[in-house]
Amino acid sequence: MEQFNTFTREREDLMKRKDELEKSRDSIEQLIHKLEKQKDEAISKSFEQVSKSFHEIFEKLVPAGVGNLIMQKKRQTASEPTASDEEIVGSDDDSEHEGVSRRTRNKQPQVNIDNYVGVSISVSFNSKHDEQQRIEQLSGGQKSLCAIALILAIQECDPAPFYLFDEIDANLDTQYRIAVASMISKLSHSAQFICTTFRPEMLQVANNFYGVMFGNKVSTVSEINREEAMSFVEGQQRR
Hints:
The protein has 6 helices and 8 strands; from the N terminus they run αββαββαβαβαββα. With 239 residues, it is of the alpha+beta class. Strands 2-1-3-4 form a 4-stranded antiparallel beta sheet. The chain has a two-stranded parallel ribbon with strand order 5-6. Helix 1 (2-61) crosses helix 3. The longest helix has 60 residues, at 2-61. The radius of gyration is 28 Å and the shape is elongated. The protein starts with a helix and ends with a helix. Residues 98-218 form the RecF/RecN/SMC N-terminal domain.
């Protein structure tokens, strides 16, 4: 009888421990679920903000065109969406993409970042109605402009104190160099932009100028004025 009572007490203790462990497991699972949901919502919100900014900035740089960031879904099953089935997010205005934007907002699916494999860029430079091109189909200058628009879109959502751009306008057409220089000039009120360039458009909106000279196997940096900078750039272009 004494042994039975001992086993009974041990069984009760073990059952209590089991209940405590199950409660702890449930609490941990709830916490994991909560953190996963917060992570997915944060990533989704950040993407929507950057995508909206990219759409707006691209239209400012290319008034005749349109650009969007696209979430790419991963392959599920043979009957479910594949990586080619995409979701456009970004434009909240009443533009040509209103149907897509409204469809995305009205559905409001449960966000799960694990269902996506990446982000792609789809743009049109000549029309807001033509079929948009992928980044792989663009020229070097067009790719550069898309990269600049994406950087500035991220800057608008998560600003940094300064940016260092190395000849970002080298492959751009004149009209786009003017547009990029103008936008950087406006954004320079809230952040510092340090740019190297051999083009005159960026110099026309800059505030300070520094020339890098190479002589006797040594590079030297000295402050110069706008006229000296323009003269140097024009001399390089004549070569």
